[in-house]
Amino acid sequence: MARRIHTLAGYIHEYQRSVLNPDDFWSQIAETFHWRKRWDKVLEWEFETPSVKWFLNGKLNITDNIFERFLYTKGDKPAIIWEPNDPEEPHKVISYKELYKQTCQFANALKAQGIQKGDRIIIYMPMVPEAAVAMLACARIGAVHSVVFAGFSANSLSDRINDCSAKMVLTSDGNFRGAKTIPIKDVVDEALESTSSVEKVIVYERTKTPVNMVPGRDIWWHDAIDGISTENTAETMDSEDMLFILYTSGSTGKPKGIVHTTGGYMVYTYYTFKNVFQYRDEDIYWCTADIGWITGHSYIVYGPMLNGATTLMFEGVPTHPHPGRFWEIVDKFKVNQFYTAPTAIRALEAFGNEPLQPYKLDSLKVLGTVGEPINEEAWHWYHDHVGKGRCPIVDTWWQTETGGILISPLAGITPTKPAYATLPLPGVQPIIVDNDGNELKGNSVEGNLCIKFPWPGMLRTTYGDHERCRQTYFSQYKGLYFTGDGVKRDEDGYYRILGRVDDVINVSGHRMGTAEVENAINEHPKVIESAVVGYPHPIKGQGIYAYAICDLSDRSEENLKKEIRLTVSKIIGPIAKPDKIQIVPGLPKTRSGKIMRRILRKIAVGEVDNFGDISTLLDPDVVEKIIEGKDTAS
Ligand code: PRX
Q1: What is the rounded distance in angstroms from the CA atom of residue 572 to the CA atom of residue 567?
Q2: Domain ranges of the chain
Q3: If you average pLDDT over every residue of the chain, what do you get?
Q4: 299 CB under 6 A from ligand 1?
Q5: What percent of the chain has pLDDT over 90?
Q6: 426: cis peptide before it, omega within 30°?
Q7: Residues 29-39: pLDDT tens digits?
C-alpha cells in the first residue's frame, strides 16, 4: 500500500522529506486518490489572517475515494462491523458494497427531501451504522454534516442548529446506552422550539420508543428511503469545499464550529490512520469513540474507510452489562487494533484484572489512546494486562481542530514511552514557546505547544466567525498555530503533553470550557456568581469543581446542589455536571474584577498555603473563608 512507513529509518527519512519539501511529500500521497481534476497548486498559506488552502482547485468527492475506489477489490470486505448495546441482539456486518448502496440511497433520499450542496445537516444519532451512512451520504451530495453527540441537551443542540442554520436534523426515536434508553427524539423536539431553520427531521427507528411525529416536518428513515434508488453519482467538490463542522468548547462561553474541508482532510486522515495504526488488509480495527467527537469522524469513519479497512462500531458503554464487555468484543471479532481513551482504561482498571480473565485478547496487535494525558500507571496496566506486553501503545495527541493525529508513535515502528505522545508525524512541525512567544530550542524544555507549518487536516475557520478562529488559535504567538496545550520535550526529544494551559477542562477526554459551565450554573436563579476549575480525578482525568455564591434563604444546601447539577445537565448535558460544588461567601477577585482561578485551583486540590501574592485581591479574607468551607464541597 502506498506511503506506509516500515522502519524507524523510514520514519526519519519521511519526516525530513516532509519538512524539506512539503509540496512533494503531500502531493505524492494525494496522488494515490481519485481526483476528478488534479490540483493546480499543493499549498497556499499564511498564519496571520489565517488562510490555509491545500490542493488548490482540485476536484473530487471523498466518498468516491471510499466506494468507487475499492468496489472491485474490496466490495465484499466488511466495511463496518456493528456490535449493539445489548449482547443478546445480533451484530451486523456491512460490506463495502452494501454500505455503498445504503449511502447512495440515503444520499438520494436527502435530495428528495430538498437538500442541496452546501446545506447544513445536524446528525444527532446513536452509534448505529446509519449514523455513518448519514455522514457519508451528506459528503456524497456535498451537504455539510455537523454531528452533535447525542448526550448533549436540547439547549446545546439548538445552539448548534442556530449557529450553522441547519436545514435538517437526522435523529432516532431513542438511544440505548447501557441499561438506559434515552428518548433523543424528544430532545430534538424541544431543541426545535427555539430554532427556525430546520425544515425536515428524519427519524431512524432504533428503540421503538413512542415519539411525536410532526406532520410535514418529521419523516421516518425507512419511509424516506422507501422506493428510492440505490444508484447515485457523487457531487463534484472542490478541495476546499466544506466537508463538515464539528462544535467544540473553548475558553469562552460559546462552542465554536470547527470547519474541515474536503481534500486536505481526506489525505491527512488516510495517511495518519495507515501509519499510526499500521493497519493491514485483513485486520479488524476498533475505535471506541462516539461519532459525535472528532475521533469518531477521523478514526471510525473517514480514516479507516479511506484505507478500505474494517471498522468496528460499538453502540454501548464499556461496563454494560459487565466490566468485561470491551474484552468480550475484542475476542468475539478478533480485533487487531484497539483505540480508546485513558478515562475508559482507568475506569476498567478500577475493576481489577478479573474481568479480563475469561478472554484471550490474543488477536490484539496495537493499542491506542486519545483524548487526554494518560498517567504512567494506566499506561502500564493497559500495556501489561490488555496488550499482554506484546502490543505497542500509540498515545495519539491531536485535537478537533487538527483533524487528525499530529504527535504519536507509529505502532511497532517508532519507540514508545509511557505517558509520552513521543514524536511528530511526518508533515507536522511542532515548536515550543515560552509565554512571551520565544522559541524554546533543544531538548529538556517545557512550554506552550504550537505548530509552525500547516498540515492538510487542519481547521480552516470557525463557522461564521473567522475572526474568532484568528483570535483563538493564531493571535497569541505571531505566525504560529497555538494548541492551548502545555508540553515538555524530554532529553531524547520526545513530547509529553501536560494538559491545557487555557481555561479548558478535559473531563473524561471531553473538552469543557470553564466559562461555558459557569454560564450554565449561573442560570439557576439562586446562584449569584460562580467559578469553575478542574482538579485531578482518578477516573475522569479531570473533574469539575465549582465554587458558587448562592442565596440559600429558602432551601437546603444539598437541594440547591442537586438543582444546580440538574440545571447544568439541562443546559449543556450530563457530561458537564460539576463533580464537586462548594457554596462560598465570595470569590477571590482582583481589583479589576478578574477571578483568580490559580487560587481556586490550589484550594480544590487541598494546597492551602503558598498562594503567592494575594495582596492585590479585592477582599483577601475571602480566601481564608473558602479554605474553611472546603470540607462542605460535595
Ligand atoms: O489537551 C489535549 C487533549 O485533548 C485536547 C483536544 O480535545 P478534543 O478537541 O476534544 O479532541 C480529543 C480527541 C482528539 C487536546 O488539546 N488530548 C488529546 N489527545 C491527547 C491529549 N492530551 C494528552 N495526550 C493525548 N494523547
Answers
A1: 8
A2: 59-434, 505-632
A3: 96
A4: no
A5: 93
A6: no
A7: 999 999 999 99
- In three-state form (DSSP H/G/I as H, E/B as E, the rest C), the secondary structure along 506-551 is EECCEEEEHHHHHHHHHCCCCEEEEEEEEEEECCCEEEEEEEEEEC
pLDDT digits (tens, 9 = 90+) for 587-626: 998 887 888 888 999 999 999 888 877 877 888 889 999 9
Ligand 1 touching residue 506 (CB < 6 A): yes
Q: What atom in ligand 1 is closest to the CA of residue 510?
A: 10
Looking at domain 505-632, which of 3.30.1660.10, 3.40.50.1000, 3.20.20.100, 3.30.300.30 is its CATH number? 3.30.300.30
Mean pLDDT value across residues 362-368: 98
Query: pLDDT tens, 337-350?
Result: 999 999 999 999 99
Phi/psi-derived region of residue 26, left when phi > 0, alpha when psi is between -120 and 50, beta in every other case: alpha
Question: Which atom of ligand 1 sits closest to the CA of residue 369?
Answer: 26
Q: How far is the CA of 397 from the centre of ligand 1 (A)?
A: 6
pLDDT tens-place string over residues 272-330: 999 999 999 999 999 999 999 999 999 999 999 999 999 999 999 999 999 999 999 99
CA–CA dist 18, 1 (Å, integer)? 19
**Assigned CATH topology for domain 59-434:** Rossmann fold (3.40.50)
370 lines ligand 1 (CB under 6 A): yes
The answer to whether the 59-434 and 505-632 domains have the same CATH topology is: no
b/e map of 158-174 (b: 16 or more CB within 10 Å)?
Answer: bbbbebbebbbbbbbbb
CA distances from 587 to 50, 256, 516, 542, 548 (A): 38, 28, 18, 22, 8
Kindly give the pairing relationship between strand 481-489 and strand 461-462. unpaired
Three-class secondary structure of residue 50 per DSSP: coil
pTM of the model: 0.95
Closest Cα to atom 23 of ligand 1: 373
By most ligand atoms within 8 Å of CB, the mutation choice from 268, 340, 399 for ligand 1 is: 399
Ramachandran category for residue 184: left, alpha or beta (phi over 0 → left; psi -120 to 50 → alpha)? alpha
Report which of 203, 268, 359, 245 is spatially closest to residue 3, judged by C-alpha positions: 268
Which band of pLDDT confidence, cut at 50, 70 and 90, is reported for residue 2? low
Ligand 1 center to residue 423 CA distance, Å?
15
- Dihedral sign of CA atoms 132, 138, 144, 146 in order: negative
Q: What is the pLDDT of residue 591?
A: 82
Determine the distance separating the centroid of ligand 1 and the alpha carbon of 483, expressed in angstroms.
Answer: 10
